[in-house]
Write a structure and sequence with these properties.
DNAb Helicase, Chain A, nine-stranded mixed β-sheet, 20 helices, Rossmann fold, 9 strands, alpha/beta
């Protein structure tokens, strides 16, 4: 099948057509290498293997002269049809495209083949052409920025975002991915396999630090948008703060959290309370004994050096978020982004507004997914659930339909997680009579690249933190049982050495009892 005809107007607009008039007015010639362009085109028509060396480097718009753009397009058309590339076939293709006369005719094509004797240096020459094309694009962008910046009606944040996007596009479009041979790939694969064998945890993403959850998800995955939703009081912020702390402190991963609801100092106070395991009220009032001050300083040293970046800008817009995340990624190589919470964000101006909240939320969720893909990091966004949960009977476990403005959020998310604490609804026992005190369920309701599951965690309200269910399973600060009667406790324990026991085995244990070892 023939390739589509080349649109010369597009090429011109990306090269000379949009070059700033100020440069032309000053008599400066836009960056170009006409002689090199002629040499490259001539080499492509005299050696059959030359095109495979540069086809992933050069694009038609890389050439400055429009005639050269059309000649190169004809050469690419032939390559796309698996036809030979030489003086005669290129002439015929240009004639078919209706571009032969515009490209200079047969005489000019013949002259190009006399410009070079071989294609030995064609890759080096092609890169010179690309460098000049990049300079022209930068001049075009700079000119447009200058024009827009002088306009009083220009939204400065949209201008910043557009500028960053354009620069990023140029950088990405000119990165050439090389092909590796099997020997190099095998060596790399073996090195990675050896590293994975040392970890013993199967993690391929950013760890949450909750072992049972990481077993299901293999960590928060690159480019994923993860929606974490719950009703107020379930501990959404406590969950992501605990996950953030685990990723940054335990695994050294850079984390950026955008706290639209809570001031940064308040968030740090939560971290201090959870890390030192001192009551949040004590931290808030500073009502600490001398021993507790020592406990605070000793246990929170690791937080000081943790790669955690907190931004508490209220009503943060998508444009501001993208700009800040790009900068944090470039400067600190952040590996995880957290937004607390989605409904407090604002879309770009002109997208949504009063009475149009669903469209605004849709724009925000799409932008968050795009941000995750652009930076190749997981984005965790907290979301509120609708009040329909409260009016429903039964145990009030959330469902996907409970997401506020759920259509777009559910569609864009790679994973939807609900947090549920039966104790919040005065449900102190499950249907089998097992206590649910301190139980926090992580319900994976959507998982585009994995399985659905429910993971138990322990919620410590006095410290506003979540921790592994198994870690505290035998101690007096909470219930010691299996809250999931159909699954043996050892199935939730991936740390090894677990023992299986009946779910009510500790019903008669007093909270004041202490043990030198778990009472198996």
């Amino acid at each position: 099948m023939d390739s589509p005809k080349y649109n010369s107007k597009t090429a011109v607009s990306r090269t000379r057509g949009n070059l700033p008039d100020v440069i032309k007015g000053l008599g400066k010639v836009p960056p170009q290498a006409m002689d090199i362009e002629e040499v490259v085109l001539g080499a492509l028509m005299i050696e059959k293997d030359a095109l495979t060396t540069v086809i992933d480097i050069l694009k038609p718009e890389s050439f400055y002269k429009e005639a050269h753009q059309r000649i190169y397009t004809a050469i690419r058309d032939l390559f796309g049809k698996s036809e030979p590339v030489d003086l005669m076939t290129v002439t015929a293709q240009l004639r078919t495209n209706g571009d032969l006369e515009f490209a200079g005719g047969p005489f000019y094509l013949n002259q190009l083949t006399y410009k070079v004797n071989s294609s030995a240096n064609i890759e080096y020459h092609a890169r010179i052409i690309v460098e000049q094309a990049v300079k022209r694009e930068l001049i075009t962008i700079a000119s447009k920025i200058e024009t827009d910046a002088f306009e009083y009606t220009t939204d400065v944040f949209q201008l910043l975002d557009r500028t960053q996007s354009e620069i990023f596009r140029i950088a990405e479009s000119n990165i050439r991915k090389s092909v590796s041979n099997m020997k190099d790939l095998m060596r790399q694969a073996m090195i990675e396999l050896e590293e994975r064998s040392k970890q013993k945890d199967g993690l391929t993403g950013v760890p949450s630090g909750f072992t049972a959850l990481d077993r299901v998800t293999s960590g928060w995955q690159k480019s994923d948008l993860v929606i974490i939703a719950a009703r107020p009081g379930m501990g959404k912020t406590a969950f992501v703060v605990s996950a953030m702390r685990n990723a940054a402190v335990q695994f050294g991963k850079g984390v950026a959290i955008f706290s639209l609801e809570m001031a940064s100092v308040q968030l740090v106070n939560r971290l201090l309370s959870a890390e030192a395991e001192l009551g949040s009220e004590k931290i808030k009032k500073g009502d600490l004994s001398e021993a507790e001050w020592g406990q605070l300083y000793n246990k929170t040293k690791s937080l000081t050096e943790a790669p955690i970046f907190i931004d508490d800008t209220p009503a943060l817009s998508i444009l501001e978020l993208r700009a800040k995340c790009r900068r944090l990624k470039a400067q600190h190589d952040i590996q995880l982004i957290i937004i607390d919470y989605l409904q407090l964000m604002s879309a770009d101006s002109g997208k949504g507004g009063p009475g149009n909240r669903e469209q605004e939320i849709a724009a925000i969720s799409r932008a968050l997914k795009q941000l995750a893909k652009e930076l190749e990091v997981p984005v965790l966004a907290l979301s509120q659930l609708s009040r329909s949960v409260e009016t429903r009977g039964g145990d009030k476990r959330p469902m996907l339909s409970d997401l506020r403005e759920s259509g777009s959020i559910e569609q864009d998310a790679d994973m939807v997680i609900f947090l549920y604490r039966p104790e919040y609804y005065k449900i102190t026992e499950d249907e089998n009579g097992n206590s649910t005190l301190g139980l926090g369920e992580v319900i994976i309701a959507k998982h585009r690249n994995g399985s659905l599951d429910t993971v138990p965690l322990r919620f410590k309200g006095e410290f506003t933190k979540f921790s592994d269910w198994e870690t505290d399973n035998f101690f007096a600060d909470g219930p010691s049982f299996n809250a999931f009667p159909d699954v043996k406790t050892s199935e939730f324990d991936i740390s090894g050495g677990a023992k299986t026991f009946e779910s009510k085995m500790n019903d008669n244990v007093s909270p004041n009892d202490s043990f030198d070892e778990p009472p198996f």
